[in-house]
Design a protein that fits this description.
The protein folds into two domains: 2-211, P-loop containing nucleotide triphosphate hydrolases (Rossmann fold, 3-Layer(aba) Sandwich), CATH 3.40.50.300; 219-273, Alpha-Beta Plaits, CATH 3.30.70. The protein has helices spanning 40-47, 91-99, 107-116, 130-142, 160-176, 187-193, 211-217, 255-262, 277-289, and strands at 2-11, 14-24, 29-33, 55-60, 63-65, 76-79, 148-152, 179-184, 196-201, 204-210, 220-225, 237-241, 245-250, 269-273. It is of the alpha/beta class. This is ABC transporter.
């Protein structure tokens, strides 16, 4: 398990994070989401012992961070937001160098990852595109099959196909029992792979929940085509209206009454959508400001 408890970090008078708390269970993918500058990277750097915190406590497994980091570092796979290694070193030589830090590296597994991500290992690191640098970072982070995986904005620079491959890799790591933190500002990808999310704003988590529960709290989008008795739905919020259709926003608690009315009406077709994580995220940011 990973536990972050009430951590605070200021850079002089400037806020890094303020009272961030969350925990991630074994075999769970946790999405830390928020815009750039919200405090995600500060939190992750504190978890990796790269910066000190002013208050709070960070525990990975049963080890205190940063004090006991050396005792658990080889069980952590870390991918920073920006990947920079030795510029003049060839990728294959870098992997050989990286492998020396761990016992019993499975070179077959390493080769599988290289082939899966279509990485050319004869090039020097300085010759790689941003996306290929990110591939190197992904492989070095998971080649030792860590118990804890901490990825900061991992899909930056990856094309959609490689993003999908990364999601599959993380799903397999989850099945293996890894505890995974996945930081992102791209809400659609968090929705695809994360079990639970923490929404970060100005250094604080303003909402934490699993994605299904988040969706239940918010209104469903119901579009009805060729509805004749529109006047019967005057108590429901209209999102959009055109000649051939009308779209309502309906709370979960009001769904039964909505469909009871609809069952007595004439219409051609109906479409029901749950809110996307992006819509939920925007709604939380707005409500927090009000």
């Amino acid at each position: 398990m990973i536990k972050v408890e009430n951590i605070k970090k200021y850079y002089g008078k400037y806020l890094g994070v303020e009272d961030i708390s969350f925990k991630i269970k074994k075999g769970e993918i946790y999405g830390l989401i928020g815009p750039n500058g919200a405090g995600k990277t500060t939190t992750i750097r504190a978890m990796m012992g790269m910066i000190s915190i002013d208050e709070g406590r960070i525990t990975i497994g049963d080890k205190n961070i940063p004090h006991d980091l050396k005792h658990i570092k080889n069980k952590i796979g870390y991918l920073p937001g920006e990947v920079n290694f030795y510029e003049n070193m060839r990728v294959k030589d870098f992997f050989d160098f990286n492998d020396r830090f761990y016992k019993n590296i499975d070179k077959k597994y390493e080769k599988e990852l290289i082939d899966l991500l279509e990485l050319e290992t004869n090039k020097k690191f300085k010759e790689l595109s941003m996306g290929n640098k990110k591939k190197v970072g992904i492989i070095q982070a998971i080649v030792h099959r860590p118990e804890y995986i901490i990825f900061d904005e991992p899909t930056n620079g990856l094309d959609p196909l490689l993003q999908h491959k990364l999601y599959n890799i993380l799903e397999k790591e989850k099945e293996r029992g890894a505890t995974i933190l996945f930081s992102s500002h791209i809400l659609s990808e968090v929705e695809k792979i994360c079990d639970k999310v923490g929404i970060v704003k100005k250094g604080k988590i303003i909402k934490e929940s699993n994605i299904e529960e988040l969706a239940k709290v918010f209104k469903k989008t119901i579009t009805i085509y060729k509805l004749k008795e529109i006047n019967k739905f005057k108590d429901f919020e209209i999102k959009e209206q055109a000649d051939s259709y009308i779209t309502y926003l309906v709370k979960n608690d009001d769904l039964n009454s909505f469909f009871e009315i609809l069952s007595k009406c004439s219409y051609e077709d109906i479409e029901i959508k749950r809110p996307s994580l992006e819509e939920i995220f925007i709604d939380y940011y707005r409500s927090d400001e009000e």
